[in-house]
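Structure tokens
________________
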Amino acid sequence: MDLTASGLVRRVSLETPDGRNAIDDGLIDRLSRALDDATADPDCRVVVVEGSDGVFSTGMDLVHAGGETTSGRGGDDAAGTGGAFFDLLDRFTTVPLVVVSAVDGTVAGGGVGVVAASDLVFASERSTFALPEALWGLLPCCVLPFLARRVGFQRAYAMTLTTQPVDAAAAQAAGLADDVRADPAIAVRQLAFRAGKLGTDTIGSLKSYARTLHPITPGTRDAAVTELGRLMDLPTVRGNLAAFAEHGRFPWQT
């Protein structure tokens, strides 16, 4: 029996028409509604978040962010989206289901946050993980609390500071990926067999207890959203995003 085809597993795709799977208000809402539906299904135990072929998620929608900066709403708009994104990641850590990121390809920026907040991460061998925000004058404000919770402060700090991609093997060694193989779907099937034997109350209790050991607090959220809004209002950042939105020019090309 293919348990991934039964009610045990629900899949939600990050795929967008342009293939970059950028994170915006629409995608955040789609993921939130998928969690609502899965939680309401008494048979569901596993929610699998996946991207499209070769791309999991490239993070923030830079074209949209650039447009908002030129309209004068950059910081406020980013804080609103950032707060909603933080709340989504936080919900990953509380929903009484097993949340799995099935990664096959590129993960960047906010996509790393989705991965880090997931209970389990199954990655293909070609997958890479990167936090390029500092190249734009930004920081992965909403990502860092969840990444540090998963891999430890120094690894999360180093990924932010260096902006260098981490390959799948290094991600597994750091604890960012739990399983690396040619086809992550195999790991999902193996998980579904065991997860089907767990009650949602048990999964929820584990997540609740884990949060007492490694908490994400309202103060953490406030700090993340405030800092993101501040950075988005900096003239350098506004200029970088506007140049990309209007001319497709990256900061390092100026």
